[in-house]
Specification:
Layout lengths: L30 E5 L8 H9 L6 E5 L5 H10 L3 E5 L3 H10 L2 E4 L9 H9 L3 E4 L2 H6 L6 E4 L4 H11 L4 H18 L2 H20 L1
Parallel strand pairs: 1-2, 1-4, 2-3, 4-5, 5-6
Length: 208
């Protein structure tokens, strides 16, 4: 927008938000979860490759459906750590995400905004995501999740390897940071205040 001539002082970034609070989940179980359309741009093949590179990784639960469903089905048939749950209702999805140690979002394209990421944050689940697009702007590396290089299965493998070996105390801190990030930026209340502030700024500029 700046390149097209809009003054930076007139630009406001207002993120999306969740319309309700699903509640913080303080505990976790020993699995990771992927949620999304099963398609190439979501990095599904990359994710499965990373799991194949480390036989010590825990269970990976995959929620969603799409054109690459057959790839997931094949992986689940050959690797007992891979569980394909298919489509789930929103409440079932949030329950599964909330109980996971981490949500993994290895997109290989520029996600404009990762709603799945803030759903995880709302539940207190840290996110492992690609250092690309909106995902890299939502995740603070080492605070509410971890970032890996996009389209690089070894980088994802190494990032997951690090994530699953942090102490329970550090994971608890990361879960709280994820939840705090949601409360500070992605609730419907903060979204409304951001929208009102943007409107007020626009009105002020129009009067000048």
């Amino acid at each position: 927008m700046i390149e097209f001539g809009i003054e930076s002082a007139k630009i406001v970034i207002k993120p999306n938000a969740l319309g309700f609070d699903p509640g913080f989940n303080a505990t976790h179980e020993n699995y990771l979860v992927f949620v999304g359309r099963l398609s190439p741009e979501k990095g599904l093949s990359l994710l499965l490759k990373a799991w194949s590179l480390n036989p010590q990784f825990p269970t990976l639960k995959i929620i969603g459906d799409g054109p690459d469903a057959h790839i997931v089905q094949s992986a689940a048939a050959s690797d007992p750590r891979i569980e394909w749950l298919g489509k789930r209702s929103l409440m079932e999805l949030l329950d599964t995400v909330g109980r996971a140690s981490f949500l993994v979002m290895p997109s290989v394209w520029h996600e404009a905004f990762g709603r799945t990421t803030i759903e995880a944050f709302a539940k207190g689940t840290p996110v492992i995501g690609s250092r690309i697009g909106g995902t890299a702007e939502i995740i603070t590396d080492g605070v509410n999740g971890f970032l890996c290089e996009p389209n690089d299965p070894k980088s994802l493998r190494d990032t997951v390897s690090h994530a699953i070996t942090i102490s329970s105390q550090d994971l608890a801190k990361m879960k709280l940071s994820a939840r705090n990030c949601f409360e500070a930026s992605y609730t419907s209340e903060t979204n409304l205040q951001g929208l009102l502030s943007a409107h007020q700024m626009a009105i002020s500029h129009a009067k000048q």
